[in-house]
Q: What sequence folds into this?
DNA sequence: TTAGCATGCATCATA
DNA sequence: ATGATGCATGCTAAT
């Protein structure tokens, strides 16, 4: 079971990393093609502001580590989509990372920057939706506390 | 209406 | 046949 948001944040703080953004996984992100979850569609805004700029469609190779120090070699590229959108960003080679955290549709991929400037990515458990949310007593109290601090 | 993205799908490679 | 790759299509939320 993937770590909760709070658990991820705690780990990040321990490692001296700062959270950049996260991507909620869609069905196609998780079951891409034959290789499950090998390519993830990345949000355009966050990708362009936080990740290295892409000169060409060849993309860039990203050296990434997870919360356990495991290393992955991922490739960031883009597709040119018909007029509506200029670019659509794709992260390739993610299947191992997704499997490591047992990520399913609705869970999220967290992107962070480590203290020494490296990239860190981690899995994060799906946030319970408010409507008909069934959560444990402890979780509900926890969420209430979080909501209050956000006010 | 448009931008952004989930997903479908045509095409090419591999075996 | 099966899988990989890149583009097209259409839905939805923000403008």
A:
């Amino acid at each position: 079971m993937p770590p909760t948001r709070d658990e991820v944040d705690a780990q990040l703080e321990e490692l001296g990393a700062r959270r950049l953004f996260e991507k909620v996984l869609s069905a196609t992100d998780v079951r891409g093609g034959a290789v499950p979850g090998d390519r993830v569609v990345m949000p355009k805004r966050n990708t362009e502001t936080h990740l290295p700029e892409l000169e060409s469609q060849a993309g860039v190779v990203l050296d990434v580590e997870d919360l356990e120090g495991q290393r992955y070699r991922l490739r960031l590229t883009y597709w040119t989509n018909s007029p509506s959108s200029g670019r659509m960003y794709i992260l390739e080679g993610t299947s191992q990372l997704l499997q490591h955290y047992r990520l399913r549709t609705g869970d999220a991929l967290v992107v962070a920057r480590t203290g020494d400037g490296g990239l860190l990515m981690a899995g994060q458990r799906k946030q319970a939706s408010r409507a008909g949310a069934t959560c444990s007593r402890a979780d509900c109290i926890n969420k209430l506390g979080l909501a209050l601090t956000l006010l």
